[in-house]
C-alpha cells in the first residue's frame, strides 16, 4: 500500500529473503569472507583489547552460551560472545571493508555464529541457513549505509 513505511518495506524485503536467493557466486564469496573473518578473529584473540573485553565479559553468565573463538573452554552468553569475538576480528583493523566505509563481516559473523551456537541441539540451524543469515546481515548493513548521509560523507571527512 502507499502507506507502507520505509522501515516496513525494508523489513518485508529482508524477511522475504531465503536460501534460494543465494547464488553459487554469493555462496562462494560469503564462504571466503567467513574464512577470512575467522582467521583475522583468531589472530585478534591475542590482542590486549580482546583480553580486556573478555575479562570484562566474564562477570556475565547464562545457561545459554556461545564459544569465544580460540578458547573452547571459555563460553559466554551470545551477546557477550559476539562482542568479544567482534572485538577480536576488528582489533588489528585487518577485517574486510567496502564502500561506503564499513567492516561488514566483523559486525555480522560474530553475532550470527554466537546465535547459531545458542540454539538447542534439536533446533540447530543448517550451514546453508547460517550462510543466509550472514548474507542477510551484510545486506541489512549495506542498505542502511546507502540510506545514511553520514556514511556517504565519510570519504570527504578523511
UniProtKB/TrEMBL annotation:
Residues spanning the membrane: none
- Note the superkingdom of the native organism: Eukaryota
Q: What cellular component GO annotations does this protein have?
A: mitochondrion
Please give one Gene Ontology molecular function term for this protein: aconitate decarboxylase activity
**Known SUPFAM superfamilies for this protein?**
2-methylcitrate dehydratase PrpD
Q: Which family does it belong to?
A: Belongs to the PrpD family.
**Protein name listed in UniProt:** IRG1 decarboxylase
Amino acid at each position: 500500500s502507499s502507506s507502507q513505511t520505509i522501515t516496513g518495506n525494508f523489513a518485508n524485503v529482508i524477511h522475504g529473503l531465503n536460501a534460494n536467493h543465494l547464488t553459487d557466486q554469493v555462496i562462494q564469496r560469503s564462504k571466503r569472507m567467513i574464512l577470512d573473518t575467522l582467521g583475522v578473529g583468531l589472530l585478534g584473540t591475542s590482542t590486549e583489547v580482546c583480553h580486556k573485553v573478555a575479562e570484562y565479559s566474564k562477570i556475565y553468565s547464562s545457561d545459554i552460551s556461545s564459544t569465544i573463538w580460540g578458547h573452547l573452554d571459555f563460553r559466554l552468553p551470545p551477546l557477550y560472545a559476539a562482542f568479544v569475538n567482534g572485538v577480536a576480528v576488528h582489533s588489528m583493523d585487518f577485517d574486510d571493508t567496502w564502500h561506503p566505509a564499513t567492516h561488514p563481516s566483523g559486525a555480522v559473523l560474530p553475532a550470527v555464529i554466537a546465535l547459531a551456537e545458542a540454539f538447542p541441539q534439536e533446533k540447530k540451524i543448517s550451514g546453508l541457513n547460517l550462510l543466509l543469515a550472514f548474507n542477510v546481515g551484510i545486506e541489512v548493513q549495506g542498505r542502511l549505509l546507502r540510506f545514511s548521509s553520514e556514511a556517504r560523507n565519510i570519504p570527504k571527512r578523511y
